[in-house]
From TrEMBL:
GO term, biological process aspect, one: hydrogen sulfide metabolic process
Alphabetized GO MF terms: hydrolase activity; metal ion binding; sulfur dioxygenase activity
Record protein name field: MBL fold metallo-hydrolase
Organism from which the protein derives: Bowdeniella nasicola
Stored CDD domains: POD-like_MBL-fold, RHOD
Domain Rhodanese: 377-460
InterPro entries: Metallo-B-lactamas (IPR001279), Mito_Persulfide_Diox (IPR051682), POD-like_MBL-fold (IPR044528), Rhodanese-like_dom (IPR001763), Rhodanese-like_dom_sf (IPR036873), RibonucZ/Hydroxyglut_hydro (IPR036866)
Keyword terms, alphabetized: Hydrolase, Metal-binding
Gene3D superfamilies, per the entry: Rhodanese-like domain, Ribonuclease Z/Hydroxyacylglutathione hydrolase-like
Length: 461
């Protein structure tokens, strides 16, 4: 058996390539949308990808299941659980609890583990060439290393009303009935790690075991004692803000994401071409540098999508459902431009027209800032904290209101259209992304230099 974990550190998302080396066949679980990594693994190991599946209708990234099936001819397998409202709307073989997928000597058994979402499946894997019992469990967004998938995303991102309480009770039942009853030796491979917004305290290690989680995870004592209410209360407490683009991901993943097919090379543009296209309103320049460089000077109307996490920040800063502008990326070369594009398609930001390698020939502007020392006497209509609500609750500048950087673009009605908004985050990175997104849609934004970290230092002196 071949087992490869493919980690997208940008979105803290993991997919799995599982192959039977004897038969030369492979299956992929929870594929991302830029699929070359799976095709390369298949070629390297002289395998054919014959099956593709996913644990649930994801909210945090756009699924690559259809993309990979279209490229390889692989058969799609999808959950049939969860009730009528949670059925996929594209073709694929439907899986119920207990159904199995055979790949040579390997058997993948579907286990219905609702709670994070109603249709959620986990998969138990048996390597028939080695054992007659399962040795591995792919838990999706059910069990993470040290944590659990949050049950409140249907409320936060999919229009649900108080579904979090029923979802939390379902997570408890799934743990009690489908997880803690398993042998301790079974290795656990989740779909996310530290940095994902699909839980509140995900571990950084890539895998765990059933026995380790039963003994040490925060939830273990509640399940052991049958304390459902205590479990529900702790699971729901302190969950981070859900990114606003999660709602779009849910809809698109249920319907079936558009298939991209072959993507050619991006065109390199000149400064003059970029100026013309940006001025026409058909394109938007994307500054991929860090916050310090953007603050020194950037293109008027540019988005700030730092190259460190381009999928995450693109999801925050640009809504392709309401904005048909094409993106022009700042990149060192063709290779980096395509890498950035690979990341943006993971969140459905597909319309990238080309790239430019420098700011030469572009008209630049300096972003407005106010220092901590000048903040008190600075005239403004709103002081906006764009950190997460749990950060805000732990301490914030007096008078500030909270709306996370991942949500501001979708809650413009909560912001004053006339007047000045002063914004801050913890250190300035998220604030740069949010500030540029808001400036582009017409808000008068002044950033607090050094953000909350600078304010806190000044007030501790």
């Amino acid at each position: 058996m071949l087992l490869e974990r493919i980690c997208d550190e940008d979105l803290a998302q993991a997919s799995y390539f599982i192959g039977c080396q004897k038969m030369g066949q492979a299956l992929v679980i929870d594929a991302r949308r830029d699929i070359q990594v799976y095709l390369d693994l298949a070629k390297k190991n002289d395998m054919e990808i014959t099956h593709v599946t996913e644990t649930h209708i994801h909210a945090d990234y756009l699924s690559g299941t259809r993309e990979l099936a279209a490229a390889t001819g692989a058969e799609i397998f999808l959950s049939a659980e969860g009730g009528e409202d949670w059925q996929y709307q594209f073709d694929g073989t439907r899986l119920h609890d207990g159904d199995e997928i055979e790949i040579g000597n390997l058997t993948l058994k579907a286990v219905h583990t609702p709670g994070h979402t109603p249709e959620h499946l986990s998969f138990l894997l048996t390597d028939g060439a080695f054992a007659d019992e399962p040795g591995y469990m792919f838990t999706g967004d059910f069990v993470f290393a040290g944590d659990l998938g949050r049950p409140d995303l249907l409320d936060e991102a999919a229009g649900g009303v108080d579904t979090r309480f029923g979802g939390a009770r379902q997570v408890f039942a799934s743990l009690r009935d489908s997880f803690v009853t398993l042998p301790d030796h079974i290795q656990v491979y989740p779909a996310h790690g530290s940095g994902s917004a699909c839980g509140k305290a995900l571990g950084s290690v890539p895998s765990s075991t059933v026995g380790y989680e039963k003994k040490f995870a925060w939830w273990a004592r509640y399940v052991a004692e049958g304390d459902e209410q205590g479990f529900v209360d702790e699971l729901l407490d302190g969950q981070p803000d859900a990114h606003a683009y999660f709602g779009r991901m849910k809809r698109q993943n249920r319907q079936g994401p558009d298939i991209l097919g072959e993507r050619g090379e991006l065109s390199e543009m000149t400064g003059a071409e970029v100026r013309e296209k940006v001025a026409a309103g058909t394109h938007v320049f994307v500054d991929t540098r860090g916050k310090e460089a953007v603050h020194e000077a950037t293109v008027e109307g540019a988005l700030a999508i730092p190259a460190t996490k381009p999928a995450t920040y693109a999801g925050w800063a640009f809504d392709p459902e309401s904005d048909d502008a094409a993106l022009i990326l700042l990149a060192n070369d063709q290779e980096e431009a395509h890498r950035l594009w690979d990341h943006t398609v993971r969140v459905g930001v597909d319309n990238v027209a080309g790239f430019v390698t420098s700011l030469d020939g572009l008209e630049l502007t300096v972003r407005a800032e106010v220092s901590v020392a000048d903040l008190e006497g600075f005239g403004h209509d709103l002081l906006l904290d764009v950190r997460n609500k749990n950060e805000y609750a732990a301490g914030h500048i007096p008078g500030a209101e909270q709306l996370s950087a991942a949500r501001v673009l979708w809650h413009q009605d909560e912001l004053p259209r006339e007047g000045t908004i002063v914004t801050y985050c913890q250190t300035g990175m998220r604030n740069t992304v949010a500030a540029q997104a808001l400036r582009r849609v017409g808000f008068d934004i002044v950033e607090l230099a050094g953000s909350y970290q600078a304010w806190e230092s000044a007030n501790q002196a």
